[in-house]
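Page 37, top half.
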Amino acid sequence: MTHDIATILLAAGLVTMPCVVAQMAAERGVDASRAVQTVTLESAWDAAAVGDNGLAVGLWQWHGSESVNTWAWACELTGRPEWGDDANRADAIRSTIVALDMIALGYGWLWTGWGVAR
């Protein structure tokens, strides 16, 4: 599922964000149930969530330029450097695409929730 399709389906109320995460995870060979559980643990599905004393943002709790900057690094690593601006960390779809691509590449350890979810 692409960014544009997911955005349209969400806006139309045809899917929920947990369904989008599960579908995108399955497309990448990532355990869909574990991905959904990870977002629940990281942000409770609040795209505006802020954690780690203000340093982590969004569904997947990405760190930006004021911290370790995992967001820009992950955007580069997954071939989406144009998304590396800190403001995109709160974009539910973009952050999910990057997170799931990172997990598929073996970086699930970046999320505490991934280690806890089963």
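Page 37, bottom half:
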Amino acid sequence: MQSPTEEELEESIKELSEYKNRLEKEVVTISHKLKIPQKKINAIIKSHSELNQLNIILSKLNKQKENVTSISIK
């Protein structure tokens, strides 16, 4: 299996970031409709398992992209 290119990593990062942002926005929108206080909304987002998983994946992809970029510069 080939390693992903820098462009493929950038595209994956972009798409996952957009999805994560939409999910966060959806949580906030629903919470506001339910009149949940902002502190509680922040706690919900912080403990949201899918958002946490997306953050982990995005972190790994960013590190992988850095490695690919540093290899291509050499």
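Margin note: The first helix runs from residue 6 to 33.
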